Amino acid sequence: MNQAGSMPRRIRSTREQFDRVFQGTSAEPSRSTTCAEYVNDNMGFAVSKLYIKQYFDENARNQSVEMIGNIRSAMKKMLQDAPWMDDDSRSAAADAIYENIGYPTYLASDNNTILENMYAEYNFGMSYLHNVLIMQQVKAREDFRTLREPVDHRAWGSLAPTVVNAFYEPSTNAICNV
After folding, report:
1. At what angle do helices 31-55 and 128-146 cross, to 10 degrees?
2. 138: exposed, middle or buried (Cβ count in 10 Å: 0-12, 13-18, 19+)
């Protein structure tokens, strides 16, 4: 069932019938929508680079950075009134929050080395299902490689800028506005 969407139409239609009964969905999304979402979910940083170069409004990013700066200033002011914190803790608490705004800076540069390294193992063929399985293998190897590495709390993470959202990520103490 997990890979039914990657299979030929006759198998996808069985999954569609299942979803119709158990989830109340009425139709399968178009194949082009499914493929575009898959590429964006799995290669979103490459897609983002193309979008940023052509369409991204740098002014919007600057406004977001300014807004986050205002939030940080307001937090510092609130912390000044916290009687249970010493001065070192107040300073550390406000400065420990970092922000991921818009996109990682390497996406706006003409240097593609980071992206090339990021997608070096992506070697696709003509079969969509085969490509999906290769992608899963690559993702599993990436997960295993990072398993014992120290966590870089300032890293952008796996959420590509093509996913528009704004949130606080408590596990990394980050304000994200993508």
Report:
1. 60
2. middle
Query: pLDDT tens-digit profile of 49-104?
Result: 998 888 888 888 888 888 888 888 888 888 888 888 888 887 777 777 777 788 88
Residue 30 per-residue DSSP state: P
Instruction: Name which of 161, 168, 152 is nearest 71 in CA terms.
Output: 168
> What does pTM read for this prediction?
0.71
pLDDT at 136 over 70: yes
Domain ranges of the chain: 4-177
Q: Tell me how crowded residue 80 is: count the other CB atoms within 10 A of its CB.
A: 11
Q: Which residues, including other chains, have CB under 8 Å from residue 6's CB and lie 6 or more apart?
A: 128, 129, 132
